[in-house]
Amino acid sequence: MRVVFASILTLSLASQMVWAVEPAQPANPQPTAAPATTAQPAVATTQKPQTLAANKTGFATANATQASLENGEKPLTAEQIAKNKAQQDAKVKALVKDQATRLQQLEKANLEALAQNQELQLKNDNLGVQVQVLQSERSAQMFLYGAATIAVGVLLGFLIASYVYTKRRRQW
Question: Most CB atoms within 10 A, among 52, 103, 131, 164?
């Protein structure tokens, strides 16, 4: 039974892994419509992704200049590179400033929430004490009701017993 279960599990995992892999595409796709009689070699046009657009930090690199040369654009001058870097630095500074203000707002909100939490905990503790006091008062009140009921029962017992005793004496 274990062998069957293990083999089924292995096959299911293996089939999931096969479906999860993307099919590989050839690096140099061959044109299918080209006639076979031409002697010219097939030229593969590969496009390099723009490093500037894909760069997560947003800084221009030497690869962006190289990519622009390959795409037929003019190379960036030192002034343009410096200008782009200054713009990127300004953007980073603005983001840092924005994050700093957000951090201050979050810290302020956190402190307010902590103060409110402590206030609510104090109220909760006070209400818990009030509940205990009310419960003890209720149990004391029930004790008094029970004592009063016993006292009335004993008093009535004595009265009834004395009445019955005096009634018997009269009959003698």
Answer: 52
| Residue 60 CB partners (closer than 8 Å, separation 6+) | 52, 76, 81, 84, 85, 88
Q: What is the mean pLDDT of each run of 10 residues along the chain (172 residues)?
A: 74 59 53 47 45 46 54 78 92 94 96 97 97 95 96 94 75 56
Asked if 88 and 59 touch (Cβ cutoff 8 Å), the reply is yes
> Is the whole model's pTM more than 0.70, yes or no?
no
Record the tokens describing residue 56, joined without a space.
Answer: 């997560």
60 and 75 Cβ atoms separated by less than 8 Å: no
| Helix, strand and coil percent figures for the chain, each rounded to 5 | 75, 0, 25
Residue with tokens 């096969």: 18
Q: Are 52 and 64 in contact (CB under 8 A)?
A: yes
